[in-house]
C-alpha cells in the first residue's frame, strides 16, 4: 500500500474511533434525559450520524474537546422535536422559548430540556472568558428558538414562504448555535476574540446546511407534514442552484478566516463537505 494511502487509512480509522467515543458519550447524555430522547425517535443510527459529523469536522480534537459541540447538537435536536412534535399551541412554543432564554441567563431549570441546557451552559462556564462570551451565545440561542417558532407558525397557518425567506430562517437549523458553543469551548484565542465575525460565516454555512438537510429529509418531512424547501412550490433546479450559490458564498467567507485560524476554517469547510457527502448532493444536482 502506498504511503499516502496508508496515511489516509490511518486518519480515517482514527476519526472513526473518535466518533465511536463521542457516540458513547452522547448515548450516556441521552440516558440522563431519557424523556427527551425516546428510542422510537432516536435510534442507534441517529447517534452514529451525529458523532460522525462532529468527528469528521474536527478530527484533530479529542473526545473531551468535542463534548460541548456534541451536546449542543444533541440539545438542538431535542428542542426541535419538542417544538415540531409536542407543541400544540403558539403559547407553548413561546413558553419554551422564554424558559430556555431564562436558563441561558442563569435561571434555575424546571424541565428536562432546560436542565440539559443548564448543563451545557455550566460546561461552557468552565471556560475562563465565558462571562464575556455569554451574550453572543445567548443571542444565537434566541435566534435559533425564534427561527423554530417562526417555522412552527408557518406550518400551523399553512403559510408558504418564498425561497429567500425560507433560507433566511435557517437559524431554525441550530447549527450556528452549535458552532458558537464549540468555539467558546475549544477555539483558539483569535477565534474567541472574533466570534461576531465568525458568526457571520457560520450563518452562511448554516443556510447551505438548511437546504441540504431538506434535500436529505424530503420524504420524511412530507410524511410528518413538516416544512421542506422542496414542498414550497420551488423548482428542484432552483433549489440546486441556490445550494450551489450558498456553498460558493460560504467558501468566499471561509477563505479569509484561514489566514488567522486554519483549524477554524477547516472545521467550517469540513462541515460543508461532510454533510454534502452524506446527502449525496452531487447526485442530486445531476438529477435536477
Any overview of this molecule?
The protein is mainly α and 288 residues long. It has a single domain (3-287), classed as Farnesyl Diphosphate Synthase (Orthogonal Bundle). The protein is built from 14 helices and no strands. Helix 3 (67-86) runs antiparallel to helix 8 (175-186).
What is the structure about, briefly put?
With 288 residues, the protein is an all-alpha fold. 77% of the residues lie in helices and 0% in strands.
CATH class: Mainly Alpha
Q: Biggest sheet: strands, sense, closure?
A: none
Classify the helix fraction into a percent range: over 70%
**Gyration radius from CA atoms, angstroms:** 19 Å
CATH superfamily: Farnesyl Diphosphate Synthase
State the total count of DSSP E strands: 0
Estimate the mean pLDDT confidence. Answer: 92
Secondary structure layout:
Layout: H1 3-32, H2 44-57, H3 67-86, H4 90-104, H5 112-124, H6 130-156, H7 163-168, H8 175-186, H9 189-193, H10 195-216, H11 218-224, H12 236-260, H13 262-279, H14 281-287
Quickly list its features.
single chain; 288 residues; mainly alpha; Farnesyl Diphosphate Synthase; 14 helices; globular; disordered C terminus
Amino acid at each position: 500500500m502506498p504511503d499516502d494511502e496508508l496515511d489516509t487509512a490511518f486518519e480515517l480509522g482514527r476519526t472513526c474511533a473518535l466518533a465511536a467515543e463521542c457516540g458513547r458519550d452522547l448515548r450516556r447524555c441521552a440516558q440522563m434525559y431519557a424523556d427527551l430522547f425516546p428510542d422510537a425517535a432516536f435510534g442507534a443510527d441517529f447517534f452514529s450520524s451525529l458523532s460522525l459529523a462532529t468527528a469528521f469536522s474536527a478530527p484533530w480534537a479529542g473526545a473531551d474537546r468535542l463534548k460541548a459541540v456534541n451536546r449542543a447538537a444533541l440539545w438542538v435536536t431535542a428542542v426541535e422535536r419538542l417544538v415540531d412534535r409536542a407543541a400544540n399551541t403558539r403559547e407553548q412554543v413561546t413558553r419554551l422559548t422564554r424558559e430556555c432564554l431564562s436558563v441561558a441567563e442563569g435561571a434555575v431549570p424546571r424541565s428536562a430540556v432546560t436542565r440539559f441546557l443548564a448543563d451545557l451552559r455550566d460546561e461552557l462556564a468552565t471556560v475562563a472568558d465565558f462571562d464575556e462570551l455569554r451574550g453572543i451565545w445567548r443571542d444565537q440561542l434566541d435566534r435559533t428558538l425564534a427561527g423554530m417558532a417562526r417555522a412552527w407558525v408557518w406550518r400551523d397557518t399553512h403559510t408558504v414562504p418564498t425561497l429567500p425567506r425560507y433560507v433566511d430562517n435557517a437559524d431554525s437549523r441550530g447549527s450556528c448555535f452549535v458552532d458558537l458553543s464549540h468555539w467558546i469551548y475549544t477555539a483558539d484565542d483569535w477565534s474567541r476574540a472574533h466570534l461576531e465575525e465568525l458568526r457571520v460565516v457560520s450563518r452562511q454555512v448554516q443556510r447551505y446546511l438548511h437546504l441540504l438537510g431538506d434535500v436529505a429529509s424530503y420524504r420524511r418531512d412530507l410524511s410528518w407534514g413538516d416544512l421542506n424547501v422542496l414542498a414550497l412550490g420551488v423548482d428542484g433546479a432552483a433549489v440546486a442552484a441556490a445550494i450551489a450559490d450558498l456553498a460558493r458564498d460560504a467558501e468566499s467567507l471561509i477563505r479569509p478566516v484561514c489566514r488567522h485560524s486554519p483549524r477554524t476554517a477547516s472545521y467550517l469547510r469540513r462541515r460543508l463537505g461532510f454533510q454534502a457527502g452524506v446527502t449525496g448532493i452531487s447526485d442530486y444536482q445531476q438529477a435536477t
